[in-house]
Amino acid sequence: MDCKELSDDQLLSRLKASNHMAFQYMYNKYWERLYGNVYNILSDKGLTEDVLHEVFSDIWIRRDSLEIRNLNAYLYKSVRNNALLKIRNKKFVDFNEVMIEALVLKPEIELELDSSELKLTIEDELKKLPARCRAIFFMSRYQDYSIAEIAVHFNISKRTVENQIYLALKHLRKNLDLAVFLLLFY
C-alpha cells in the first residue's frame, strides 16, 4: 500500500514500527502547512526551520512512546508551543546580550584602582573556573571577541557562550570583594 493512501492513524501505526517511508510521507504532508503557521508566529526563516526540525526529530526519536490521538492537532500544537518557547528564549538571549555587552571596564575606575593587584586577584579567581569557561570569559573580556565569534571558535551555541560568561561573572561576584566587582563590571 502506498503511504499516500494511508490515514493519519495508519501513518502513526507504521511510524511506531519505525517505517521511514511513513515518517517521510508525514513530514512531506505537513511540512509546508506547519512552516507557514510557525513563520507567521516567528517571522524568521531560520527559527521556523529549527522549530520544524525539532518537532519532527522529537517525533521520530520518541515514536515508540508517543500516544498521539490526532496527528494534525498534535503537530500544530507542538510547533506552536515550540515557537512560543523560541520567542521566550530569544527575549532572554537579547536581554543577556545587551547586559553582557554593557559589562565593560570604565576608564575612570581603572585609573583609581591599583590595576596590577586587581589583575592578579581576578586572575587567581579565574583560575578556579573550568578551562573552557575561563577561556570564553577571557576571550570576551580581554580579547574583545563577540559572543558570535566565541561561539564559532568553540563550535557551540551563542546561548552556551552567554551561560559560560554568566557563570564566570557569578563566580567573580561571589568571590571578589563586592565593591571591586561593582566598580569593575557595572
The CATH homologous superfamily of the largest domain? RNA polymerase sigma factor, region 2, helix turn helix motif
Low-confidence stretches are 102-106, 109-113
User: How many alpha or pi helices?
Assistant: 10
- Give the H and E element order: HHHHHHHHHH
CATH fold type of the largest domain: Rna Polymerase Sigma Factor, Chain: A
Report Rg: 24 Å
- What proportion of the residues form beta strands (DSSP E)? under 5%
Number of strands: 0
Question: Under the CATH scheme, which architecture of the largest domain would be assigned?
Answer: Orthogonal Bundle
Helices and strands: which structural class? Answer: mainly alpha
As for the number of domains, it is 2
Distance between the termini: 67 Å
Shape: elongated
Topology of helices and strands:
Blueprint: H1 8-16, H2 20-42, H3 45-61, H4 71-102, H5 107-112, H6 115-126, H7 131-141, H8 147-154, H9 158-175, H10 178-185
Helix pairs in contact: 1-2, 2-3, 2-4, 3-4, 4-9, 7-9, 8-9
Report on the architecture of this protein.
- The chain has 186 residues and is mainly alpha-helical.
- It has two domains: 3-95, RNA polymerase sigma factor, region 2, helix turn helix motif (Rna Polymerase Sigma Factor, Chain: A), CATH 1.10.1740.10; 103-185, Orthogonal Bundle (Arc Repressor Mutant, subunit A), CATH 1.10.10.10.
- It is built from ten helices and no strands.
- α2 (20-42) packs across α4 (71-102) and α8 (147-154) crosses α9 (158-175).
- The longest helix has 32 residues, at 71-102.
- It is elongated and about 75 Å long.
- Mean pLDDT is 79; it is low at 102-106 and 109-113.
